[in-house]
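Practice record 12: protein with flavin-adenine dinucleotide.
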Amino acid sequence: MPEYKAPLRDIKFVMNELLNSEQHYASLEGAEDATPDMVDAIIQEGAKFCEQVLSPLNQVGDKEGCTWSEDGVKTPTGFKEAYQQYVEGGWPSMTADPNYGGQGLPHSIGLVMSEMVGTANWSWGMYPGLSHGATNTIEAHGTEEQKQTYLTKLISGEWTGTMCLTEPHCGSDLGTLRTKAEPNADGTYSITGTKIFISAGEHDMAENIVHIVLARLPGAPEGTKGISLFIVPKQLPNEDGSAGERNAVSCGSLEHKMGIHGNATCVMNFDGAKGWLIGPENKGLNCMFTFMNTARIGTAIQGLGAAELGFQGSLTYSKDRLAMRSLSGPKNPEGIADPIIVHPDVRRMLLTQKAVAEGARALIYLAGQQVDVVHSGKTEEERKAADGLLGFLTPIAKAFLTEIGYESANLGMQVFGGHGFISEWGMEQNVRDARIGMIYEGTTGIQALDLLGRKVLMTQGESLKGFTKLVHVFCKENADNEQLKEFIEPLAAINKEWGELTTKVGMAAMKNREEVGAASVDYLMYSGYAVFAYLWARMAKVALDKMVDGTTEEMFYNAKIQTARFYFKRMLPRSRAHAETMLAGADTLLDMPEEAFAL
Ligand SMILES: Cc1cc2nc3c(=O)[nH]c(=O)nc-3n(C[C@H](O)[C@H](O)[C@H](O)COP(=O)(O)OP(=O)(O)OC[C@H]3O[C@@H](n4cnc5c(N)ncnc54)[C@H](O)[C@@H]3O)c2cc1C
């Protein structure tokens, strides 16, 4: 397994040089504590924890997995102790509301920590990650009493949380869920039903688990308009706030799965469990939407982590492993062969992983800044603009990054040749762990419908224009910069084409609604490559400016420019295929009668 090394230089590049974090934090309400020194110290400490505590447990988690018994679920060796250390370090409270024990730091700093945790050990990171979802829900929609009872415990890390949405017959289509919530005389509800695939649904890492459950009230309207949201604790809270009597919720079994073995994926049975309504009746899905963007950005990090971990492993290996000679003559004449890093095809694989990891970091941190502004922007106008941009970027980040992150994990394995397929190197684990990213929190197909249908076409292209305007301004400002020409010209071209393609798909959709579904995944992938082009051009500009000003880190900045060049010449052209395919028409998919899909 590659030992994870937090890429601190690149993290700082994106935060400070690309996205001007200092200025950004100064512009927020109540972020006075996020001074550069403070932010730096947090990231350094976080990196140490991830490298020294979490990374060594990654392979342990994969090998041991979780075990179920009548008494509960046992997590892999070391997971519980690592969680204890995480709690003692105050990490769960970092970005939470100070009124309930949080430190109130901007969410974007939490995302940097999530990146390091998730890359070091994704399965472990899901336990606090899910708590984060529960925390956000109660923070946004809970009553004062619910906040005092549950939020304080989630924020301190004493209790963890889950999100119980999926049922055996539905995951994407939550409108059909069947779990029932029947009112009790005391104002509570009896929750009955089965939820499946519940991450961190049961474990031994914390003294209580707070389930956030979607269920239907008696007589609720059908579909998504009849869903309500409930808090269902594993143990009912006592008067003094401690975890008391056991509630009627239990883990029936654990799923056997392809990857993320260290995380307990549970079948949860609610047998008349006591629950409390959060938010208004029948508005459960609306409540969930308020934090969905943050949760989805959290999942997008899995793509970044997979690319980073694959890159770190394959980089070391490609410098050590000797095979054949460079086509232009020996590069290691004393050795029996050259290291494989001399071969163009190995370079292709390394640079793809590097371009994906660094581009993904830039996209996630940019989205993180929008989350900050949505929560703590000083004006309503700022908050609204950030919300619009975040809503547009979220499905792209979630689906595009998990897709190309998975591709990168695969390339990481390929660099190792046969050894990549063997467990001890950890590359096959990275591939197995990364695969789920494209499925949960809304599959790639569902994200693509969200982007093209809800975000772009339903706003008459407004959300797209919000982003393409940023790109346009950047291109205009740098139009005369000769050194940047190789990036600005193709960027301006794709930015223009993006709008034209959207119009064409929109026109086709007016004649036939099926065109939306037929174009959507290609549209999303095209959008991902376009967003990356903008970010890589901006990164190239920062690096070129540094080189002009003079720097002692020439190698770092040169590598940025060279990676940008690689991206523009060797990855961006993929957008051509997506452009053509998205216009290929729904008939190429739907003309074949269903009966013809036969064996
Ligand atoms: C390891 C793991 C952990 C998970 N953790 C959680 C958790 O903590 N909490 C939770 O609630 N759930 C969790 N899930 C569930 C996960 O979110 C769902 O599996 C996912 O949303 C897909 O739902 P589904 O499995 O029902 O697939 P379906 O909805 O049946 O989809 C099947 C296929 O049909 C496609 N599809 C469906 N509808 C459309 C459409 N309208 N247009 C185009 N394509 C469509 C989908 O893209 C997919 O390819 C987890 C799942 C796994 C495997």
